[in-house]
Each structure stands twice: as structure tokens, then as C-alpha cells.
Amino acid sequence: MVVSFTGLKNSDEFIIIALCNSYENYIELDSPFIGKNIKLKDNFAIVEFTELPFGDYAIKTFHNENSNSDLDTNMFGMPTEDYGFSNNARGIFGPPSWKDAKFKFYEANKIMEIQLK
Q1: Using an 8 Å Cβ cutoff, are 113 and 59 in contact?
Q2: Is 55 left (phi over 0), alpha (psi -120 to 50) or beta?
Q3: Alpha-carbon distance 80 to 65, whole Å?
Q4: H helix or E strand, kind and range, residue 32
Q5: CATH code for the domain of 69
Q6: Strand partners, 55
Q7: What dihedral angle (degrees, nearest 10) is formed by the CA atoms of 87, 91, 97, 98?
Q8: Do 17 and 38 form a contact (C-beta atoms < 8 A)?
Q9: DSSP structure class, residue 112
Q10: What is the CA 84 to chain-centroid distance, rounded?
Q11: I need a labelling partner for 73 at 20 to 30 A (CA). Which of 82, 84, 94, 102 fits?
């Protein structure tokens, strides 16, 4: 499976990607099924997940512009760094639900795009 990440405002530092294979590791901050840090080039990033078993997954990601490995927020808890989810799902007053971000991976050549905002 190949995933591209678009909508980035600059190429500073990298994006942090969490590929989750269950509701439990989707809601946990530090325990994804697979985690990756991807360096940006020309406001774009791409990642390939190889030898991934078929199943249900969700991706959450953010642009870690200052290399602190945390999604920075303002005093109201709103993110100040761009972020995105699979299916380009968006939550209201928080992240989207597992149901909204979940996708089925049952074809080896799956290509997905996530736009960060």
C-alpha cells in the first residue's frame, strides 16, 4: 500500500504517521500498529507499507515542524501544526472516530492520498 501526503505548507522537518489496525491503538497516542517518520521534500511525502496483512486500518498523521514529536496546540487545545486522517476524515472538537477514518485494505496495490490541513 502506498500513501501520499499533500497540503503541506512547507518542507520543514518531517511528518509522523501512525497506521492503526484496531480501535484500541487508534485512540492511544503512543501505540500504533506501525509508526513512521517521513522526511518531506517539496511540501510532499510518500510512504509505502510493505508486507501489510489485509484488514481494516486507519491512518493519523501530523506535520512535526519543530521536531518535538508532539502535535502542538494552542491554549484552547486546537492544533497549530497541520494534521490529517485516512479518508480525509475530520472530527468536530477532536479527532474523527475510528469508524470515519477506517478503511479496508484488501488489494495489494492500494494507493491513498491524505491531505493535511
Answers
A1: no
A2: left
A3: 10
A4: none
A5: 2.60.40
A6: 105
A7: 30
A8: yes
A9: E
A10: 5
A11: 102
- What are 93-98's contacts with CB under 8 Å, separation 24+? 95/60, 98/20, 98/23, 98/26, 98/27, 98/58
Number of domains in the chain: 1
Cα 73 from Cα 21, distance rounded (Å): 26
Location of C-alpha cell 500513501? 3
Closest CA to 5 of 42, 33, 54: 42
Question: What are phi and psi for residue 84, nearest 5 degrees?
Answer: -160, 165
pLDDT by residue for the chain (117 residues), tens only, comes to 999 999 999 999 999 999 999 999 999 878 899 999 999 999 999 999 999 999 999 999 999 999 999 999 999 989 999 999 999 999 988 899 999 999 999 998 999 999 999
For residue 80, CA distances in Å to 7, 72, 110 come to 15, 6, 31
Provide the whole-model pTM.
Answer: 0.93
